[in-house]
Structures are given as C-alpha cells and as structure tokens.
Specification:
By secondary structure, the chain is mostly beta strands. The protein contains four helices and 30 strands.
Length: about 500
C-alpha cells in the first residue's frame, strides 16, 4: 500500500493556475445505483444533436479530453465506460477491461486498442486525451491517446482502424452520447468521478491545450481550453447543481436524461477535482473481510456477520484534520476512528485488530488495539442515536497528538491522548478507518463528496470541504483532507 501512496502517478494535485471547482460522481452500487441515476448523457432530438449527428464539422476527426478518478477496480464481466457514442449498436467507446487496462474501439472504422498500462490507482486523478483522424495515411497516426501528458505507445492490442472512414460518433443520425455508462447497461457503469469533459467535433486538438506540466512539481495539471468546439462539440464542467448537463461550449448541446435532466444531478455534484484531490476510502486495503465501498468511495456497507473494515486513501502524520460520518443505525454503528498503515497490507481476523487502531463505538465505549491486544473503555459521552453525524477531529500538530469526536456539532466523550496510547500513532501514518459487523452501512464525508444531504454547508477555514458541522473544536481550526490543505500543512 505504501507504494501506491507514494510512487504511483498521482495525476494533478494542488499546483496553482487554472482551477476546476466540480466533478460528477458515478456509482454502480449504493444510493444512486439505479439505472436512471447513471449519467445518461443523451442530447435529445429536440435539442438538435442526435438529429444532426451526421452533420458536424468533419465526420472523420474528433478530440475528447476529460479527467477521471476511479474508486473501484473493474469487476468480472464489467466494462466501465468513461464515455460512449452509439447508434444502432455501432459505437465509439472508451472503457476499462477486467484487467484494468484502457480499451477503446470504433465499430465503423474497426479501430481497437488495448493498453499494456493498467489503471489501478484509486486515489489519483488521471487526464485522458483521445485524438482520432481517420484521414491519416500512416495507421498509427490515426489515433493518439495521452494519459497525464504522456502518449501511450505500448499497446497489447493495436488496430488503428481503416483510413478515410466516418467515425461512429458522426456516421448517421440518431447517435447518442453517454458519460459514465453505455445506455442503461449496468455492466458498463463507471465508479468514480469525472471532471472537465470536452468533446471537439471536426479537429484533433493537441493535448497541451488541455493540460501542462507544473514547473515546480513536474506534475501534469489542468489548463483552461480556449479553442473552438466545432458544430457538435460540447463542454461539461458540472458546475451548476441545478443543471449538471449544461453545455458551456457555447453550442447549447446540453445533456439530459430522457429529456428530463440529470437524475439526482445535484446530489451527485462533488468538489473532489483534479486541482483539489480529496481523500476517499480505498478498497485496495486488504482485510480478511472488506466493507463494500460505494457512492464515490464515501459509503461503507457490510454484508456478513464478521468484522469488516475499510480505510482511507491518504495517510497523515502532521496537521489537524476533520471528517464526518452519518450513523443510520446506532445499534450497529461499528467502530469509527483511525488506524495506522502497519507493516503489511494483508490483514487477518477482525478488521479493527490490525496494526494500531483507536475507535469510538456506538454503545458509549472506545476500542483500542495495539501489539496484539485489544482493550475497551468508556469514553463518558453516552450512546449514539440513529442518524447522528459524528465529527472526527484528529490533531497531529500538538505535542500530545489527540483524537476527539463531536456528535451533531457538540463534544462527544473524552479526548484521547494518542501519544500515551502507542508510539505508532506518532511515528506512522494514520488513516480514517471504520469497521462494521453485519449487514449495515455508514455514510462518510471526507469533504469532497458525501452521500447524505448537507443542510448547513460548513467549510474549513481555508474554504475547502462541505460539511454539516464546523471543523473547529472551539480551540483550533481543523481541515479537510485534500491536496490543497496537505500542501500547506504537510499531512
């Protein structure tokens, strides 16, 4: 796990310059998993797109650029789409294989490419640019694909398609385009976030028009696109929660869901973006029994009578940090708190009985695990109640290193001196952690997205995160776990 945290390509983080404010969340499981909640990006005939999909600027050239963050690996027999343009079973699509390779095809040109590269970092934002020009005489020039500014040159399957053939997106009328799925096929549903979606009709646009390398960090970061889109082009930035399918290209090619807007659009708007990457829960942590992670990696669900666990994607050693969790069933709240990364990512036994763990329980007790032994003690705050929102305050800045909890905005139980419990809490990275016994769920909000409704919209002192309650414990400001705050406070 440490390799994933430190050496994988992280996509873009907080590097200044062009800012992206919003993304849209996709989930094939959880609260918004019904078919109608998929971002069915249909340009209705009344809007003119499908009726004129064969009357664009140039039917043999296009460019697509977007940013994406995966929150689950591909399941067996699933082919999660980033996007899909199709009519009558003929499609141009980009998706992930069951081995997490990137695959794309165009039925009309017979193009089919599968990367050797795999995409298994579930805490990073990736940038993809796909350029297609079927008029090129050299086959390998007909399709170019860039990931985080680097061209993919190594393909497991390599067929660039036939020359001088119309692309599937433009071959006929009645072409519909989808983001995050292909029609209403569950097996094509994407899990994660997508931001800054550009579709350019009629030209191949350089990848450097959408992104650039940061001169200080060397990280590939977003760049504002200022070029044209062509007749059928569109640009979705998901910034309007009342109209998540609004087209900002100037072409008015708005998207909708069967003519009625994006289902659950406002509830699926996120502030987890390529320019401010928030912590989520990461299914790559391996326990004997894992919780199911869904809804943008914010909802945790148990499925068996075992202690099942889940842990966050970002480890912390410095700073003051805040997050929230809603407890639908207080009698089955499980344990909420922190856990160290440990020496191994292979767990056995109860999820909370790994590494060093300190958690608050729903029954008025705390649980502490260290060095092979587990202890329980009363925290003095009483029981949780159904639908309580528990705020977690982790202070790794003070000399004592403390952990405390609030319940619905008020202090809940005693403050824990972590340094006195175990040196592991002060020498190793610690992560948000939860364990559940049985078939119950909890709903987390680490700042970038939360599945439960926020009524008060509290942010940290830097303006980041969207929480129900204030990230201030009455003495100190605490901060959302995101790259802008991590860059400032060290994490």
């Amino acid at each position: 796990m440490e390799t994933l945290q430190r050496t994988a390509n992280r996509g873009s983080v907080s590097t200044g310059g062009y800012e992206i404010s919003n993304s849209i969340m996709f989930s094939s499981l959880g609260t918004y998993a019904d078919a109608n909640s998929l971002f069915y990006n249909q340009i209705a005939t009344s809007d003119g797109w499908a009726a004129n999909s064969n009357a664009g600027t140039n039917a043999r050239k296009l460019t697509v650029s977007c940013w994406f963050k995966r929150t689950a690996l591909t399941e067996s027999s699933h082919y999660p789409r980033l996007f899909d343009y199709r009519a009558g079973g003929v499609a141009f699509a980009v998706y992930f294989t069951t081995s997490d390779q990137l695959q794309m095809y165009d039925d009309n040109t017979s193009m089919n490419l599968i990367s050797n590269q795999v995409f298994r970092d579930l805490s990073a934002w990736y940038h993809i640019v796909v350029q297609i020009d079927s008029t090129q005489a050299t086959a390998s020039d007909r399709v170019n694909v860039y990931i985080n500014g680097e061209k993919i040159t190594s393909w497991a399957t390599e067929d660039y398609g036939n020359q001088n053939v119309d692309l599937s997106a433009f071959r006929t009328t009645g072409v519909y385009n989808y983001i995050g799925s292909a029609a209403f096929d569950y097996s094509t549903a994407f899990n994660g976030y997508i931001a800054e979606y550009h579709f350019i009709d009629g030209s191949t646009v350089a990848h450097t028009e959408f992104g650039e390398t940061d001169s200080d960090s060397g990280i590939w970061k977003p760049k504002e696109y200022t070029g044209s889109y062509g007749t059928l082009g569109h640009y979705y930035n998901f910034s309007d929660s009342t109209d998540m399918g609004e087209d900002f290209s100037g072409n008015n090619n708005d998207s909708n869901n069967r003519g009625s807007g994006i289902t659950n659009g406002a509830a699926r708007q996120a502030t987890d973006t390529p320019t401010n990457n928030f912590a989520t829960f990461n299914p790559l942590w391996n326990y004997a029994y894992n919780l199911t992670i869904s809804d943008g990696a914010s909802k945790l669900t148990g499925s068996q009578n075992q202690w099942q666990g889940a842990k966050g994607s970002v480890g912390l050693q410095n700073g003051r940090w805040y997050w929230e969790v809603k407890i639908p069933d207080a009698n089955n709240a499980g344990f909420t708190g922190i856990q160290t990364q440990g020496e191994s990512n292979i767990g056995s036994g109860n999820a909370q009985s790994n590494n060093s763990t300190y958690c608050r329980k729903g029954d008025g007790n705390d649980i502490f695990y260290y060095g092979g032994s587990e202890s329980t003690s009363s925290h003095g705050g009483g029981n949780m109640a159904n639908d309580n929102i528990i705020g977690v305050f982790l202070d790794l800045e003070s000399s004592t290193k403390t952990l405390r909890w609030f319940k619905n905005g008020s202090s809940y139980g005693s403050t824990i001196d972590l340094a006195s419990k175990s040196t592991s809490f002060t020498t190793r990275e610690v992560f948000p952690f939860h364990a559940i016994y049985g078939s119950y769920d909890v709903q987390y909000n680490l700042g970038g997205y939360g599945v439960y409704t926020i009524s008060s919209s509290q942010s940290d002192a830097n303006g980041y995160g969207t929480f129900e309650y204030s990230p201030n414990d009455g003495t100190y400001d605490y901060y959302a776990i995101c790259t802008k705050n991590l860059a400032k406070y060290g994490g």
